[in-house]
């Protein structure tokens, strides 16, 4: 489902001087070819960029870009994101088949025609210097490239054509066959068959074949100029269905991503659908629009510089003639002397790698020579320096020394590079973190120049756009949403033109090509960049445009040297040379295996021949490991050696179940609780050893020393312990199933004990840092638990007291990290265990029920949560007392359940109990609420609010907020989210009371705080984003509303929220529906709101308050769509249900009465009924709401609309102009001049002038025209409301021009005399009222 819909924007008229479309003699409409304006910005003066679209093979300048439902994204979507742009679409006859006349033009001829027409268009509109961004689909990309090549060749006598290249900032290719398309060859055969019935143009097809001469020549010409443009390339990922249902990849990624200066990006579409998008919420459209925003933001400076250079203007030092920054050390300010060192960034970064070179590294001269030769030498095909990054893939078995080989090369040639970068490619997240480090290093080059740091940083950030992610201390954000953007900025930076900045990148340990987007993170289009990739994947040998070196084996002499260097204490014999060669060959000449074997021999001080005997014995037992059996046999020998020391052997095995590179001794040196220590003595999990080791630091250190001595682990530079990934893997896989599960549970106990210690202390910064160090180990444990079978592992853990407690705290961690599904699984296992040997205490079980219920509340599973809490509360109260935080938290949770289920009396009772239990009522001081009590008070405020008791809600929330603010500095950092949460609920009440601007600013501030405190994906953070989006919608800031609701929608889906069950997701969908309605997307609004209504009816019933809100908005949509009868029927039923089930919800009743009255106003003969409906709402608003309250202002407007709808002769009560003027003034102050509600007030005031003060019709006409212009500016000329009000304004202008000539159009006044016809020649009052109804501001 698409919850957003698409915005329709009518095409604008042709440019000045253009003639209307006509038919050619052949019957072909000129609409099918040539340059067509699709959209003009809001006045030519505000237009900032030209988007020019060129279609592909057999395409059409409109149909190519249009979906089956009629959405043309150039016309309907792009103008919303780029309102100040001009959008043009070029059409040409590229048909390769058909029965109509075909034009036998070549691609080059089409390009010349396109260039000429674009030149003339821009000259006629005097916009030659406006930046151009070209959008090319398929064949259109070949046409565009040919046009730019021709533009580049144009001399001074053809300046107009040359100016196109000068003004082109970027080219966006969609599935363009840069190297030809295999589909073209297939197409030739198909067309040959088709030519029996229709004429065929195969001239173009021949030019598109793979490796065609035309494309080859163009590719060479394009290389010479492509660096002058920013290039983005998108390619298809789905096959296109052709004859007989066969699927064909028309332009594969390798053909679509060889334009020379960009990395291709996938779109999840087939070739035909590559440039068709239904809505702005389409993920592929979001990707494209984001790219275009980046391009537009840089276009003006670039093109201005191009023109300055072209005209001989003086330019700033450090800029090349192409206007792109040419150097990593470019001057940042023309006023700064180019000799001032502080104005430049350092061109060399300090050499630093996270992995140290092995001091025992020897040999590999052949590999090093081959590596250097390829990285620096032009190969036979001419593919060399200055075209693309040179990339070498080192692939081979684990332990083959790939990483050490790349480090050795970097060490030896570090002076040849400005910087050496390291990427951990083992996972996508590690890659993102590596790019963050790279960007941070680049930032640090701008420091150390007092007085010039700001200039240097500004210069860097102009090319590395990461400024929004840099903290005040200069550190880049580690936020999950920021990391991909930082990585992209770094990749783009490395691919930019930096003639004096050369770099080497090592992408280490590429483990997967299936789920790792290598093309995204590989900077492969740099003139001075070199990349070394290390991988165990043999499939990497198939990667194109890369040189491949297999590193499985080294020279025998090198292998012998590694072995002997590692074993200086061996018992020597006469057969050493022979034995060393035998061992080296038996180990497959793998450096890591040789080093480990040497370390073992050295430690045991044995003869080489003895080791050879041991090795052969164990290798026979490890045949299941295939190619890795040799190296695993080496480790098995070492493991068996450790078996002599049980501590070392057990510890090494335990480390295999924790994270392989972040372990530190402190994680183990956390003592067991006394009762856990007793329980472990008889534990079947072998945790007695673990308890003993945790209490003896010396014993732990001795075990680690023995592990280090045989090189199975080593220290990192930060003091943590590192296990090679293969050792890490082998340490688990060598165990039997039972032993593996036992060690896994011990690892969970280690993690759980550390978490217990953290969560039972005040949550300081140090404790938070401690928890962050535990998270990688928790992640690894839960991953392995799921591999082994979580259900069985959990059941076993719950029979051990220490393991059960560890499991509980693991659940707490995941709950706090918003990993709700994992938390639910853990707490459900504890809460529902029925094992007779379960070691879960009643307290742990009840607390697990409480926490499980809290998770279910977030998923809107209120009935399940209620059952759990009703069971947990009496247990917790009996065990720890009613004033304990666990008991209060359970009461609070149940109160929230009752609130969400609209059981207000039960909710109020529970929440008051929680407040009382959590409040310190010591004598001689005012009561002080604890954190949970304040939380309960804030929820109670929402209960009051839902019952229309707004003042009580405001009072209790204000007190909770006051106390939370006072206690903020005194309480733990664990409460950091508490104050924003209370403020959020307080803002809801302010919103209801009409303080919308204050509420909006509060929501925005809270959202920013929660992103930092809880993370952007936390449910509370997303809830605030949703509320902020709703408030933006209230205030008419629709683009901002759309952005915020998109954030909430996507974030909630990522959490696993169900669109039809979770109220959080339904609230977002509801708000999207309202936003669609406000933007005139009525069909989409009905779809969203109907889904919400059905879901609420299923979750609750048709008479629930939430269901009523959906019915209300559906009624308003029907009214706006011109279906007032349907709206009246629905809204009358709604009002009847509200009066029967929620008579005290006065605000909701008021909203419904407003909507119903305005719908009745549109129905002939129903104005009196509208008065009866509206009168109670008017009385309530005037007696209970402040004059500035938006609901009261809406009631006043509805009242004025109803009175005016009666007509000047039948008005049942006078309309006081001063009152209406006061309402309009308040609307201007609260909403601003451009808001729909303000415009509506002005239109009604204009009507009042016409009907009550006939002498002020000129002023009324002026106000109507102002309203039309305002709506055109705020909603766009294509919005139905803009069109309607513009029509009304034109009718008044026309009436004013013809008023003196109209004698026949007169009406009888109330006194029987003839009245001038000036009111009737305009639109009737009822018609105006109907039009005004469309301007109603949604509740």
Automatic annotation (TrEMBL):
<feature type="compositionally biased region" description="Low complexity">
    <location>
        <begin position="20"/>
        <end position="29"/>
    </location>
</feature>
<dbReference type="GO" id="GO:0005783">
    <property type="term" value="C:endoplasmic reticulum"/>
</dbReference>
<keyword id="KW-0496">Mitochondrion</keyword>
<protein>
    <recommendedName>
        <fullName>NB-ARC domain-containing protein</fullName>
    </recommendedName>
</protein>
<keyword id="KW-0256">Endoplasmic reticulum</keyword>
<keyword id="KW-0472">Membrane</keyword>
<keyword id="KW-0802">TPR repeat</keyword>
<dbReference type="Pfam" id="PF00931">
    <property type="entry name" value="NB-ARC"/>
</dbReference>
<feature type="domain" description="NB-ARC">
    <location>
        <begin position="389"/>
        <end position="563"/>
    </location>
</feature>
<dbReference type="Pfam" id="PF13374">
    <property type="entry name" value="TPR_10"/>
</dbReference>
<dbReference type="GO" id="GO:0016020">
    <property type="term" value="C:membrane"/>
</dbReference>
<dbReference type="GO" id="GO:0042802">
    <property type="term" value="F:identical protein binding"/>
</dbReference>
<feature type="region of interest" description="Disordered">
    <location>
        <begin position="1"/>
        <end position="40"/>
    </location>
</feature>
<dbReference type="InterPro" id="IPR052374">
    <property type="entry name" value="SERAC1"/>
</dbReference>
<dbReference type="InterPro" id="IPR002182">
    <property type="entry name" value="NB-ARC"/>
</dbReference>
<dbReference type="InterPro" id="IPR011990">
    <property type="entry name" value="TPR-like_helical_dom_sf"/>
</dbReference>
<dbReference type="InterPro" id="IPR019734">
    <property type="entry name" value="TPR_rpt"/>
</dbReference>
<dbReference type="Pfam" id="PF13424">
    <property type="entry name" value="TPR_12"/>
</dbReference>
<dbReference type="GO" id="GO:0043531">
    <property type="term" value="F:ADP binding"/>
</dbReference>
<dbReference type="GO" id="GO:0005739">
    <property type="term" value="C:mitochondrion"/>
</dbReference>
<feature type="repeat" description="TPR">
    <location>
        <begin position="934"/>
        <end position="967"/>
    </location>
</feature>
<dbReference type="InterPro" id="IPR029058">
    <property type="entry name" value="AB_hydrolase_fold"/>
</dbReference>
<dbReference type="InterPro" id="IPR027417">
    <property type="entry name" value="P-loop_NTPase"/>
</dbReference>
